C-alpha cells in the first residue's frame, strides 16, 4: 500500500536570538530527521512531552512552517515544491484542529462567519449555498443553530471546539491534524469531543493525525502510535503492541508515569529520574541516554535509527536485549 | 479520623455578587482533614474547588465574595471573620499553598533563594543568614541538586518541574500544618508530574503535615490521596476513602466522570460515555440535586428536594438517592472492577 | 476561573445601551460634551453674531446684551469668536484623527507584515519622532500657504509615526495569535487575512491612539494660532483669542479664560471617551462593562 502522507527525513531548525555577539546563534532542532508514512483512513497518534517536537511536526505537515530539511509528500505530491496558488488548492485536503478552543477562533467573528470563512475562501457556492452548508456543518458537529450567531467568548470551551471542528471539515478534507484537540477540556467535555472526532472520521473516511501528550487519549483513538523525544521518533508501532509491551526505554518511562485511576498505581514509586534535557543542547548519540538505565557507551557515540524490532519500530541500540517490560493492564487494549 | 482535625470546614456557603448578579459558588460545603492525611478535592473547572481553597486562605476578593454561612476552622480557630492582618500570620505560615502555574507564581526579578528566605523572614524572627540557610535546606529538601548554587538562580533559569519544586519549598519554608496544592501538576509533563506528586507524598510523611490536593485528574487522586471528595456545582456530592469511592462509586456524577475517561474499559475507538448538557449557571440555588438534569440515573424524586448526604459505608457518604442504581450500573466498569 | 454559567443570551440593543449608560455616567457625560461642541460648531451662525466685525469704539467693553462675554481689544464679540473658534478646533481635531488613523494603520500594518519594509519604515518614524511635534508642525506650516488645510497637514505628519509604531507592535502580536494561524490553514491569505483577522484585532489600541491624536491636534492647532502660524489672525480660533488676550491679561484675565476653559473641556472629553470606547468596542470586555 502506497502511503497517503509521507515524511522523509523531515527536520526543522529554529535559529534563536544571539546571546552574545561573539558566539554563533543558538539553533534549536525542533524536529530531527523524522521519516513516517501515514496510510489513508488510519489514525496516527503522535505522543510525547512538551518540547519533543510533536506540535512542530504537526505544523510542518500543515505547511504552516517550512521544513529545514527533508520532504513531505501528500498523494505523491511534494508540498514544499508547490507555488502559492497550488498550495492554496492543496490546503483543501488537509486541515487542523487546535488545542486552545478560544485562542484559535477570531474573537471578533461570530461562529457562523468563522465556519463560513473556509467556504468563502474557496468560493464553494453562492451566499445562500454557503449559509445552508454552515447550518449542515453545525448539525454535523452537534452545535445548536442558535449558537451560530454568538461570538467565541459567548460559547463554552466544548462549543468553541465544535466550531473549530466544523471549520476544519467544511472543505471535506482528507487529512485532519488534531493538535492536542481535547487537552484543554474537562473530562466530560473531552469525551464528547473525542466521540465527535471518531464519528466524523468514520463518516468522512478521514485520515487523522492525533497529537497529544495524554497516553489514555492516544490509546483510545489511535491505530498506530509514534512516540517522540527531543525531536526524534523513538518508537512507532500498532497501538495494541506498543501499549501492551512498550519497547523503547522512554516509552516505558512515559507509560509508567501516567497517573491512571488504578489501584496498581497506589503508593508505587514510579517517577522516572531526571528531566528532559534542553533541546538547545541535546545529549550526543541517543537523546534519551542521560535518563536511561540501560545506556552504554555505544548510546553516547551513535545515533540509534528506527528499525523493526518485535513487530514495531524502535530507535534503541539495545532494543533486543532489554529486560521484558512491565505491563500496564489499565491501558492495555490487546 | 474525627479526633482533632487540622482543618474542618462546616456548612460553608459562599456567594459572589457583581453588578446585580449573584453566583452561589459554594453551597453547604462540609469536610474535615485529619493530621497527616491527604484529602483530594476533585471536580471540573468552575465547580468551586479553587474557590474552596481561596476561601480557606482568605484570598477571595473582599468586595464581591461573601460567606453567607458556615465556618472554616484551623486547629479549632475559626478563620472566617479574622482580619487581613490576622490572616497574614496564618497564610504562608500555618497554611502553605502551591498553585498550578509555577512561572507566574514566582517573581521573575528575584533569585529563588531570596524568595524562599523572604517567605521565612515574613513569619519567623530570624537573621538574614539563618533565613538563607533555611532556604538552602528547603531546596535540598525538595531534591533540587546543587542547592547552594541554585539559590542564586532566577526563575527563568529553571525548568517547569524545578520551579514547582521551588514553589513547594516556599510553601513549606515555615513548616505549615496544612499544604493546599491547587492543580500542582496540571501544567507539567507526565514524567515531571509523577516526580512532583511523589515529592509531595514524601514531604507529607517527613514533615507530618496534612495536604488538601485539588485536581481534576482522577489518576492523580488514585496515585496520591487517602480520601477524596467529588465536587459539582458548588456542592460536595460524594466523599470517602479513595479505594472505597473507586470500588463503589455512589453518585451519578462520580459514575459519569469514571465512565467518560478514555482508555479505560471503553472499547477502543468505541463511544465514550458522555455527560450530556453543560454545567448549570449558579445564579440561583437549586432545590433538588444539581446534577439531576444531566444524570443518566435521575428519577422523579431527584429534582424534588436536596438529598441529604447518606452513609454508604463507613466514612463513605454520597448525596445521591439513586446510589444503588449507580453502583449496579458501574459494577462491571473496568476501573471499578480493578478496585473491588 | 469562571463561576457563571458558560453561555448566555444577548439582550436587546437598546436595553444594553441603557444599562451601559447607567453604569458609566462619566462616559455618557463626555459623549454629551462632545455632542454639544459638535452642535455648536455646526450651528455657529445661529448661536452668535459676526465674529469678524471690528468696532474700535466698543473695545474691551464688559459683557452686555449685544456681547454676553464682552468685547476684545478690537471691539469684536468674544462670545461669537469663541463659538466660531469651536469650528477650527473640531475640524482640525477630527480631520487629523481620521488622517492619522487611515495613514498610520495602513503604513503600520505594512511595517508589521513586511520584514525589510518594516525596518525602513520604522527608522523613518524614529527620525521623525526625534523632532518635537510642534516644531515640526511649525516648520511644515511655514513652508505652505496659510490656511486650514496647511494646519491639518502640518499637524498630521508629526502624529503619524506614533500611530505607525503602535499599529506595528500590535500587528506583530496579532500575527502570532492562534486564530491567525488557523485562518491561514483554511486558505485565507493576503488582504482577506489583514482585513478579517488582523485589522479588527488592532482596533482597540488604534482607537485610543486616534483620540489622543485628536486631542493633541486640538491643542497643537491652538498652539499654532497662538504663535500666529498657519491661520491668518482674523480667523476666529481659541489659540488666536488667547494670543490676543495675552496683552490684556492683567486687566481682563477673563478674555484668556473663555477659550482656555473651552479648550480644556473639549480635550478632556475626547481623552476620556477614547479610554472608555476601547473597552466598549472589545467584544470580550464589553460584557464586563455592561455594553
TrEMBL record, chain A:
It is found in: Cell inner membrane. It holds the Pfam family ABC_tran. The keyword Disulfide bond does not apply. This is Oligopeptide transport system ATP-binding protein. Keywords: ATP-binding, Nucleotide-binding, Transport. One of its GO terms (cellular component) is plasma membrane. GO terms for molecular function: ATP binding; ATP hydrolysis activity. Residues 5-255 form the ABC transporter domain. InterPro entries: AAA+_ATPase, ABC_transp_ATP-bind, ABC_transporter-like_ATP-bd, ABC_transporter-like_CS, Oligopep_ABC_C, P-loop_NTPase. CDD domains: ABC_NikE_OppD_transporters. Residues 255-282 are annotated as: Disordered. It is a peripheral membrane protein. Belongs to the ABC transporter superfamily. GO terms for biological process: peptide transport; transmembrane transport. PROSITE patterns: ABC_TRANSPORTER_1 (PS00211), ABC_TRANSPORTER_2 (PS50893).
UniProtKB/TrEMBL annotation, chain B:
One of its GO terms (cellular component) is plasma membrane. It comes from the Bacteria. Keywords: ATP-binding, Cell membrane, Membrane, Nucleotide-binding, Transport. InterPro entries: AAA+_ATPase, ABC_Ni/Peptide_Import, ABC_transporter-like_ATP-bd, ABC_transporter-like_CS, Oligopep_ABC_C, P-loop_NTPase. It is a peripheral membrane protein. It is found in: Cell inner membrane. Its main location: membrane. PROSITE patterns: ABC_TRANSPORTER_1, ABC_TRANSPORTER_2. Residues 9-258 form the ABC transporter domain. One of its GO terms (molecular function) is ATP binding. Gene3D superfamilies: P-loop containing nucleotide triphosphate hydrolases. One of its GO terms (biological process) is transmembrane transport. Coiled coil: none annotated. NCBIfam families: oligo_HPY. Belongs to the ABC transporter superfamily. This is Peptide/nickel transport system ATP-binding protein.
TrEMBL record, chain C:
InterPro entries: BP-dependent_transpt_permease, MetI-like, MetI-like_sf, OppC_N. One of its GO terms (biological process) is transmembrane transport. Gene3D superfamilies: MetI-like. It comes from the Bacteria. Residues 86-274 form the ABC transmembrane type-1 domain. Pfam families: BPD_transp_1, OppC_N. CDD domains: TM_PBP2. The keyword Transmembrane helix applies. It is a multi-pass membrane protein. The chain crosses the membrane at residues 26-49, 91-113, 133-157, 178-198, 210-233, 254-274. GO terms for cellular component: plasma membrane. The keyword Cell wall biogenesis/degradation does not apply. Keywords: Cell membrane, Membrane, Transmembrane, Transmembrane helix, Transport. Coiled coil: none annotated. Belongs to the binding-protein-dependent transport system permease family. This is Peptide/nickel transport system permease protein. It comes from Devosia enhydra.
Amino acid at each position: 500500500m502506497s502511503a497517503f502522507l509521507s515524511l522523509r527525513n523531515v527536520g526543522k531548525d529554529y535559529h534563536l536570538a544571539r546571546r552574545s555577539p561573539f558566539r554563533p546563534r543558538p539553533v534549536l532542532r525542533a524536529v530531527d530527521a523524522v521519516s513516517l508514512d501515514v496510510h489513508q483512513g488510519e489514525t496516527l497518534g503522535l505522543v510525547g512531552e512538551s518540547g519533543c517536537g510533536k506540535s512542530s511536526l504537526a505544523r510542518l505537515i500543515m505547511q504552516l512552517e517550512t521544513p529545514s530539511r527533508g520532504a513531505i509528500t501528500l498523494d505523491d505530491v511534494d508540498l514544499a515544491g508547490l507555488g502559492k496558488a497550488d498550495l492554496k488548492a492543496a490546503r483543501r485536503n488537509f486541515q487542523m484542529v487546535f488545542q486552545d478552543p478560544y485562542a484559535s477562533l477570531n474573537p471578533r467573528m461570530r461562529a457562523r462567519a468563522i465556519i463560513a470563512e473556509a467556504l468563502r475562501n474557496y468560493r464553494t457556492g453562492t451566499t445562500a449555498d454557503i449559509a445552508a452548508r454552515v447550518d449542515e456543518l453545525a448539525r454535523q458537529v452537534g452545535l445548536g443553530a442558535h449558537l451560530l450567531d454568538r461570538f467565541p467568548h459567548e460559547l463554552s470551551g466544548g462549543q468553541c471546539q465544535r466550531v473549530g471542528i466544523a471549520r476544519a471539515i467544511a472543505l471535506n478534507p482528507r487529512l485532519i491534524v488534531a493538535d492536542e484537540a481535547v487537552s484543554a477540556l474537562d473530562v466530560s467535555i473531552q469525551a464528547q469531543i473525542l466521540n465527535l472526532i471518531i464519528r466524523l472520521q468514520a463518516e468522512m473516511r478521514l485520515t487523522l493525525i492525533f497529537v497529544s501528550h495524554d497516553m489514555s487519549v492516544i490509546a483510545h483513538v489511535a491505530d498506530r502510535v509514534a512516540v517522540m523525544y527531543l525531536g526524534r521518533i523513538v518508537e512507532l508501532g500498532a497501538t495494541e503492541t506498543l501499549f501492551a509491551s512498550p519497547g523503547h526505554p522512554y516509552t516505558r518511562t512515559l507509560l509508567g508515569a501516567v497517573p491512571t485511576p488504578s489501584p496498581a498505581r497506589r503508593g508505587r514509586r514510579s517517577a522516572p529520574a531526571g528531566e528532559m534535557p534542553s533541546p538547545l543542547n541535546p545529549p550526543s548519540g541517543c537523546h534519551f541516554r542521560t535518563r536511561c538505565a540501560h545506556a552504554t557507551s555505544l548510546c553516547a557515540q551513535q545515533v540509534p535509527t528506527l528499525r523493526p524490532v518485535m513487530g514495531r519500530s524502535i530507535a534503541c541500540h539495545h532494543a533486543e536485549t532489554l529486560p521484558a517490560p512491565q505491563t500496564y493492564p489499565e491501558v492495555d487494549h490487546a | 479520623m474525627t479526633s482533632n482535625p487540622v482543618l474542618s470546614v462546616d456548612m460553608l456557603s459562599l456567594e459572589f455578587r457583581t453588578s446585580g448578579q449573584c453566583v452561589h459558588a459554594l453551597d453547604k460545603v462540609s469536610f474535615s482533614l485529619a493530621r497527616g492525611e491527604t484529602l483530594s478535592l476533585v471536580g471540573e473547572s468552575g465547580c468551586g474547588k479553587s474557590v474552596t481553597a481561596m476561601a480557606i486562605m482568605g484570598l477571595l476578593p473582599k468586595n464581591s465574595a461573601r460567606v453567607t454561612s458556615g465556618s472554616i476552622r484551623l486547629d479549632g480557630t475559626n478563620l472566617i471573620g479574622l482580619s487581613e492582618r490576622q490572616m497574614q500570620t496564618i497564610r504562608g505560615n500555618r497554611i502553605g499553598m502551591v498553585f498550578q502555574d509555577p512561572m507566574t507564581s514566582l517573581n521573575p526579578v528575584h533569585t529563588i533563594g531570596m524568595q524562599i528566605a523572604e517567605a521565612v523572614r515574613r513569619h519567623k524572627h530570624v537573621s538574614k543568614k539563618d533565613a538563607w540557610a533555611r532556604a538552602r535546606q528547603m531546596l535540598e529538601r525538595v531534591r533540587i541538586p546543587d542547592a547552594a548554587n541554585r539559590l542564586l538562580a532566577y526563575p527563568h533559569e529553571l525548568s517547569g518541574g524545578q520551579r514547582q519544586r521551588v514553589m513547594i519549598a516556599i510553601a513549606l519554608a515555615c513548616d505549615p500544618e496544612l499544604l493546599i496544592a491547587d492543580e500542582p501538576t496540571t501544567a507539567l509533563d507526565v514524567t515531571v508530574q509523577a516526580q512532583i506528586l511523589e515529592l509531595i507524598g514524601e514531604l507529607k510523611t517527613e514533615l507530618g503535615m496534612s495536604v488538601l490536593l485539588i485536581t481534576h485528574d482522577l489518576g492523580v487522586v488514585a496515585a496520591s490521596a487517602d480520601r477524596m471528595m467529588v465536587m459539582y456545582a458548588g456542592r460536595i456530592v460524594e466523599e470517602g476513602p479513595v479505594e472505597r469511592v473507586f470500588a463503589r462509586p455512589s453518585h451519578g456524577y462520580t459514575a459519569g466522570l469514571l465512565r467518560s475517561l478514555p482508555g479505560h474499559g471503553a472499547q477502543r475507538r468505541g463511544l465514550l460515555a458522555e455527560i450530556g448538557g453543560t454545567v448549570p449557571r449558579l445564579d440561583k440555588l437549586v432545590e433538588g440535586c444539581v446534577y439531576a438534569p444531566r444524570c443518566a440515573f435521575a428519577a422523579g424524586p431527584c429534582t424534588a428536594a436536596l438529598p441529604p448526604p447518606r452513609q454508604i459505608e463507613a466514612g463513605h457518604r454520597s448525596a445521591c438517592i439513586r446510589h444503588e442504581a449507580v453502583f449496579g450500573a458501574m459494577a462491571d466498569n473496568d476501573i471499578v472492577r480493578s478496585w473491588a | 476561573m469562571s463561576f457563571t454559567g458558560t453561555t448566555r443570551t444577548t439582550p436587546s440593543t437598546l436595553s444594553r445601551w441603557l444599562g451601559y449608560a447607567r453604569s458609566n455616567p462619566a462616559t455618557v457625560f463626555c459623549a454629551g460634551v462632545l455632542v454639544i461642541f459638535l452642535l455648536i460648531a455646526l450651528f455657529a451662525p445661529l448661536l452668535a453674531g459676526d465674529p469678524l466685525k471690528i468696532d474700535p469704539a466698543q473695545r474691551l467693553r464688559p459683557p452686555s446684551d449685544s456681547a454676553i462675554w464682552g468685547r476684545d481689544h478690537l471691539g469684536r464679540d468674544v462670545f461669537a469668536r469663541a463659538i466660531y473658534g469651536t469650528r477650527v478646533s473640531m475640524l482640525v481635531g477630527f480631520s487629523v484623527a481620521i488622517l492619522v488613523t487611515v495613514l498610520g494603520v495602513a503604513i503600520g500594518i505594512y511595517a508589521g507584515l513586511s520584514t525589510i519594509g518594516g525596518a525602513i519604515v520604522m527608522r523613518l518614524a524614529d527620525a521623525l519622532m526625534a523632532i518635537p511635534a510642534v516644531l515640526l508642525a511649525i516648520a511644515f506650516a511655514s513652508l505652505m500657504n496659510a490656511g486650514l488645510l496647511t494646519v491639518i497637514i502640518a499637524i498630521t505628519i508629526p502624529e503619524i509615526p506614533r500611530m505607525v509604531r503602535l499599529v506595528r507592535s500590535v500587528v506583530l502580536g496579532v500575527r502570532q495569535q492562534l486564530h491567525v494561524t488557523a485562518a491561514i490553514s483554511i486558505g485565507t491569505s493576503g488582504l482577506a487575512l489583514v482585513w478579517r483577522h488582523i485589522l479588527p484585532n488592532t482596533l482597540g489600541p488604534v482607537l485610543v491612539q486616534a483620540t489622543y491624536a485628536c486631542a493633541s491636534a486640538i491643542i497643537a492647532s491652538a498652539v499654532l494660532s497662538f504663535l500666529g502660524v498657519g491661520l491668518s489672525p482674523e480667523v476666529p480660533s481659541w489659540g488666536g483669542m488667547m494670543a490676543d488676550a495675552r496683552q490684556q491679561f492683567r486687566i481682563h484675565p477673563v478674555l484668556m479664560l473663555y477659550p482656555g476653559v473651552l479648550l480644556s473641556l473639549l480635550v478632556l472629553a475626547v481623552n476620556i471617551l477614547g479610554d472608555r470606547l476601547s473597552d466598549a468596542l472589545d467584544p470580550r470586555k464589553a460584557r464586563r462593562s455592561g455594553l
